[in-house]
Amino acid sequence: xxxxxxxxxxxxxxxxxxxxxxxxxxxxxxxxxxxxxxxxxxxxxxxxxxxxxxxxxxxxxxxxxxxxxxxxxxxxxxxxxxxxxxxxxxxxxxxxxxxxxxxxxxxxxxxxxxxxxxxxxxxxxxxxxxxxxxxxxxxxxxxxxxxxxxxxxxxxxxxxxxxxxxxxxxxxxxxxxxxxxxxxxxxxxxxxxxxxxxxxxxxxxxxxxxxxxxxxxxxxxxxxxxxxxxxxxxxxxxxxxxxxxxxxxxxxxxxxxxxxxxxxxxxxxxxxxxxxxxxxxxxxxxxxxxxxxxxxxxxxxxxxxxxxxxxxxxxxxxxxxxxxxxxxxxxxxxxxxxxxxxxxxxxxxxxxxxxxxxxxxxxxxxxxxxxxxxxxxxxxxxxxxxxxxxxxxxxxxxxxxxxxxxxxxxxxxxxxxxxxxxxxxx
Length: 426
Prior knowledge:
The chain is α/β, with parallel strands linked by helices. It contains 15 helices and 13 strands. It has an eight-stranded mixed beta sheet, sandwiched between helices. Helix 4 links the parallel strand 4 and strand 5. It starts with a strand and ends in a 42-residue tail after the last helix.
């Protein structure tokens, strides 16, 4: 049987050494090395999207891979692609590292400098485990071994541009279409998801910060079940406790949520921390909300550049959404696209705060009038992002009725576009 091997090695010399040895292995089909953790996850997600059978049997992770540390990367692979055997390549053969690698989900460890026999044995063992796992999963295992649920992050270009309202309505739209959805508040110091949905809570995302193995039962204890059917993982009531959530904790939490829910919507606020930066990096879709004014657009550009410098996300992989849109403003979506270098969503959210004010003030954002042009635009955006199931007869996000909602999801209902005449959306 042919063993497909995908090496992830950032160092050029080490990559050549690994490739040379892999080419000597019998019945091996090594792929070209990938140079960083983002490229590795993207490659595996693409292959899993085609079929579980397209995934490699073995993945080799070099200890100096980046930007995600090797052990965190192994943990993410084991959560998202459990039918792939992962082998760590490292110069440290200590029992402590071996135990940490096994806890993260590795199937073996190869020490540097590489030796043919050791590499062959570890790759063979990982491949055999992978084959057995796929046989155990059976025909129905494809969805479980694929990339898991869809993760969408929502970040504000600055405070007050409407990121939380956007995240809440995206989650409600996905849930109303029939998906299992969790809405996560990673605006750790100033999160308002609980206030917008009239929730009194005791547990928060901080309760998962120190847990290294987040089981379904542990996760369910931390998640709040809302009347709408949404699952909520909320920011702590005491903002200073947000510092307890590290980037490592965030990766574990997002990975656990992805494995349990079909759609994970994360409100990242407008202040970047290690936790929400990790979430943006892991996201399938990163949404950046801005308003059509100079200060907000500058903020959007600043965030995009920071993500690029820190290798969190490239500008072209980010979707910008214009909130409080009005055709009479000087700054229009094409200009924002040129300034930020991001992709612009086809849906803009109209400036009509009067529609929102009652729901915002009462903390009942889930009861927003279905006829609201703001709600219709945000639910149309959910369809554009691919987190809404098509309705009967192939009805999509535009024009189809969703479960639990009395209005249709549509974009521009009135002639002349979605721009309102008064107020602003939040």
